[in-house]
Amino acid sequence: MNKLGAMHAASFATDPKHLGFVLARYKFVSKMLVGVDSVLEIGCGDGTGAHVVLPVVTKYTGIDCDAGILPSDGLVWRQWNIVTNAFPGTFDAVYALDVLEHISPKDEDRFFTHIKMSLKPRGFLIIGTPSLESQPYASSLSKLHHVNCKTEDGLRATLACYFHNVFRLSFWDAGRDSALWLRPNDALSSRPVCLQEVIFPDT
Which structural domain range is residue 71 located in? Predict the structure, then answer.
């Protein structure tokens, strides 16, 4: 039986609802990855969420730049900084949840350029990131580390610099439908799926 990784075990002890949100995001992404052969997760952390994805893909690879994070049971991952270097090999899909907002704007170009190098010609990228509009409701700790949150238009404009096809989905919980915007262009097959969290304040 798989156990929670150290990071998410601590999260469960202090704020179990937050862990529920994290796993719901992975469930959402796993539905888009059903049947995909090779998948790369950027920023896998302790690997807890990866166990939601593992059953639906053939081959999973997780990377994280933090060597101090212990992977959860049954998960093998590599320490790697995608900003510094592209990861060896190519994949049918790459996803990064709650990573972009931690990437300095000055490093953003290398971040996306190296991700594109990791994608097969018909591969796709899933980016999950909190919207700029959600930040007034974020915790003080989150605000401290969120250095690159974007509006919908800002995220779309950024991704359009690297991809011709952009699918934008709004996520607020795993039980609700998601809005979908399609920007078709056949010039390139590789395309990102933009997943932005919508936060509703308590009333």
Answer: 6-197
